[in-house]
Request: fold
Amino acid sequence: MIQYDQLIFEISKPGRKGFSLPADDFTGIEVSNLFPAELQREGKAELPEVSENQVVRHYTNLSNKNFGVDTGFYPLGSCTMKYNPKINEEIAALPGFTCIHPLQPEESAQGALGLLYDLELKLAEITGMDAVSLQPAAGAHGELAGIMMVKAYHDARNDEKRTKIIVPDTAHGTNPATAAMVGFEIVEVPSDETGGVDVEALKAVLNDEIAGLMLTNPSTLGLFEKNIKEIADLIHEAGGLLYYDGANLNAVMGKSRPGDMGFDIVHLNLHKTMSTPHGGGGPGAGPVGVKQRVAEFLPKPVIMKEEDRYRFEYDRPLSIGKMKGFYGNFGVLVRAYTYILTMGAEGLRAASEMAVLNANYMQARLKEDYILPFDTICKHEFVLDGLKCVSEIEVTTLDVAKRLLDHGYHPPTIYFPLIVHNALMIEPTETESLEILDAFCDAMIEIAKEAKESPELLKNAPINTIIRRVDEVRAARKPVLRWVKEENHG
Amino acid sequence: MKIAEGLLYTKDHEWVRVEGNKAYIGISDYAQEAMGDIVYVELPEIDEEFEQEDTLCAIESVKAANDIFLPVAGRVVEVNEALEEEPEAMNENPYENWIACVEMADESQLKDLMNAGAYEAFIAEAEEE
Amino acid sequence: MFPYIPNTDEDVRAMLDRLGISDVDQLFSDIPEALRLNELLAIGAPKSEMEIRDMMHKLADQNLSGYGTSCFLGAGAYDHMVPAIIPSLVQRSEFLTSYTPYQPEISQGTLQVIFEFQTMICELTGMAVSNASLYDGPSAAAEAAMLSAGVNKGSKILISATLNPEVKEVVKTYMRFRSIEVVEIPEKDGHTDLDAMKEMLDPEAIAVMIQSPNFYGVVENLEGVSAAAHQQKAHFILMQDPISMAILRTPADWEADIAIGEGQPLGNTISFGGPHLGFIAVTKKLMRKLPGRIAGQTVDLDGKRAFTLTLQAREQHIRRGKATSNICSNQALNALIATIYMATMGKEGLVEVAEQSAKRAAYLKRELLESGKIKAVNDQPFFREFTVELPKSAKEVNQALLENGIIGGYALTGKKENQMILCATEKRTKDEMDHLVQVMEAIL
Reply:
């Protein structure tokens, strides 16, 4: 097949059109009379001129240059690339969900409100929290809402000394970025030799300036924080709040709940744990759950149920305010709700159990050829520290990842968490079969062998993909961030 | 790795070239090597004033951003605008391509810095660890 | 067994054997006893596909929507035509089920779409650089304010009273935690009071944020705003509807530093308020301050054109506590929709959508005023929304309209409780509008 390599602008030709609109039957109303000349645009935006079928073929060809969960195994650690059920898509596309306006009278949208209300209850039950807001649009957005609530909580108590947030050195980059956006100073605590938070180091930084601690449990190393109860008690005794980054909830659904562990605020990533598609980078949904004492700070509006009627409540004087327009990424929430109903209590528990079993099985198979820095039971993911073997030329984690592309797999997350220098973070999820896990492990082991015997294979990889490694230095030094006509004709 | 004579150095691998009460600031060969391909230098603004050890600017490589700390307090009087278009010049010739020049507020702060010999010893020691 | 979990009992036994354990629960032995959940979650038992379909259709049917309902609401979410090719292309699972394009070799589809999206947003706005999209219009406004707060020194931001209230709220939330005061520029005749703005501008201002067409539908004349802002070293942030840009002066024409907007009208369904997408585009000077993902063009090892995420040193996974923003994702799939929409409508089609919307809104306003019971509140130029004064509360009128199967306009409150903002897009037919006029006639 000839490889398609054009931009939509390059197949444009004046006079072609892809749209079809009804005839304009408003003769007598002239646009030139509606706006004074100084408000009108001079010249037209240079959008493409293409026929409908050209548009279809163009974007179909582009889709063929992508790799998704439906294409193959995608063990991208910390991203929970599980199967995205098709029934979720069918349901979310119902006109009763897509064609409703967020400001239409509440009584004409009771189905939508009821769905949101019940989803809140279910997420509260899954996480062990007292109240949930579905408003944040993504994990990082939920995290921002959560840390704003930490600030608002202390502010409401006139506890203004609390200007610092603790994050462990294994934390995702969003954690410090979020804390900084809310004006907090960041205090980093190291991990101990078992990969958990170093409790003694934590004690050393605790004082009345600490607003809270942000934690992922299981951690980004895929390990359950065994001292969580002690950590929670320490933070609470110091007057701080405990924040749960829900990136790794897929490990513990129906097995253990952040609320019971002592967390005060959680955010979830429905596009990870609750199977909604990642869409190439979004949209997601990042609900936040809280314990009762933080509930009055939730984003507004909240949904109330009165008898059989649902309504939005805006009168929330202590709320942090609105995080985004309207009530959240509703279409994503419909998918997540459909998934939770489909799986039910037994299904969610089975999902976490299988995700953990799959990860442990792969960890056991790969630790012969790759360095396993924390050789213990993992949860839904595990982190390797690069190849065990030493080759004549230096072979890096990046080379292993690129060679995996030649074997037809999406590589794991690499070089994260930062404390594992050559990290390969592998998360299989529950939706992969033993045959797939074995085939992937075989490929990883084969690559380890290649690294020893013919390392240039890894250095040159990938060779089976439609493009080879890209020049990222050039992209960043001389940024070309849009198509320009002249350049491509010159 | 090269260490240029006649310059003063910091433990964060910046160098200073003193001309009267002006100090030209750059990064050492060791620093550019560690950063890898430099893709962008975020220059400070003329007339901006800084304390010693303040973040003067950031240097970006593809996968990292490195803060550059000002070795001596002062007011920015010149910036090397050529770096905006040619950031790779810092990789190619780190001692010729200064980032900014400040008018020093307190020249006595220069005594906190290392000469070429001391800097070489400092790196050797750091490498051993 | 569950349909999304392929491992059989036999597979599980084989894996447990390999691990030398007898029960999956042993893999959870690292969770302290007291924290283990020993009962099922109270969320109900699993349901079959048929049961789910039945339940969800019933919920969807409780919402008033679809054919037979004419919607005259805008106020931040607009009922424009969605071409048939959009749902079909967007369901291509290679787009739908992929993650952020970290591995360019197997993500050229998503990356090229983002590059095309950025190009189209630059064309529409006239600005130099666009990112790959943000969560939605209001959060894009907040991110723009954060950008200004990062670049400019000062303690306050001026926002126009004519901004969409949802936008105001979100900007206020972000600014509260950034310790920047949000000061409202008053309105005059449905337009930002530019004289007042000039007086309010001082060295403490980090930016001036104005929306056009504004919340009331009015197309603002922003002559002199940019110069006044720049004189105080403040940014001019202009929020503008993307469809309107096809025929109205662009943010670049008004010399804005940052252009933002709600991208939903570009082919995205309203979906009860989300997922939509926000866009943000800036001058070349601010390029490296943009929040969020950006795709750039480069070459691969063979010199072949390729696309990759770039300028990543701005972002949270590298800068951590010093990043421009904490945002990780973009609304990639919604940006894909917007891109396909702009490609399909094209250079001429987008102009036609804009013109037809403007003409229909003008027709509807003219017809409504005809009766004499409804009055205009100003005679400013407007795009696809306009504000009218009713003889009674707009909320009450909306109730009556609902009983006639019509979703009315946005009911203002307080002193303006008799005012309604009505919207007409190219989708509102003459029949629908004439029907609205008749019903209004009858209920007023």
Summary: The CA atoms of residues 37 and 43 of chain C lie 14 Å apart. The radius of gyration of chain C is 25 Å. Chain C has a mean pLDDT of 96.
